[in-house]
Every structure is written in C-alpha cells, then in structure tokens.
Design brief:
By secondary structure, the chain is mainly alpha-helical. The protein has two helices and no strands.
Amino acid sequence: MAIGVILFIAVVAIFVIWLLVEFKRARHKFFAIFMIALILFSYFSFTYVAKKNDVDLSSVPGIIGGGKVYLSWLGSLFGNVKAISGYAVNMDWKSSNETKSKK
C-alpha cells in the first residue's frame, strides 16, 4: 500500500514538473510567434505605405520622410481601430427578435 502511494506521489510530481516545463516552453513559443508576426506586419505595412506614397528610400531625407509617413499611417490606423472599437462597445447588442405576448 505504501509503495502505491509513493508511486502515485512520484507520478504526480513528474506530471507537475512536466507541466511547468511545457508552460515555460509555450510562453517562449508564444513570444517568438508574436515577434515574428510583429516583424512581418511591420515589413508588409511599411512596404505598402512606401509604395502608396512614392517614398524614395535611396536617400537619407527620403528615409526620414518615409518614416514620418509610416508613423502617421500607424497613428491613423490605431485611431481608426479605437473608433471602431468604441462604436462596437456602444452598440445595443440585445436581441431584437423578441415576441410580444397578446392579451
């Protein structure tokens, strides 16, 4: 009986240690995926903004101008997301398909 309890405690301890290691690995994996997504978003969005606004990236003033245009674009993007989120929060999300009972 005592061997069974000790074996059960050992299995639980091994399982807990394994879970802790997996959570740590998942946290690192999530951070890596987040960083990759952030880099890809930055690259594709900067490329889009640079092409749309004919930014000259072959000179220092062109790069500075492109950075200003990109930061302005990011600011307006976050402003639009804020406005849409605020609008969605303030909407009436109640069901409008209620039936009224006749008396």
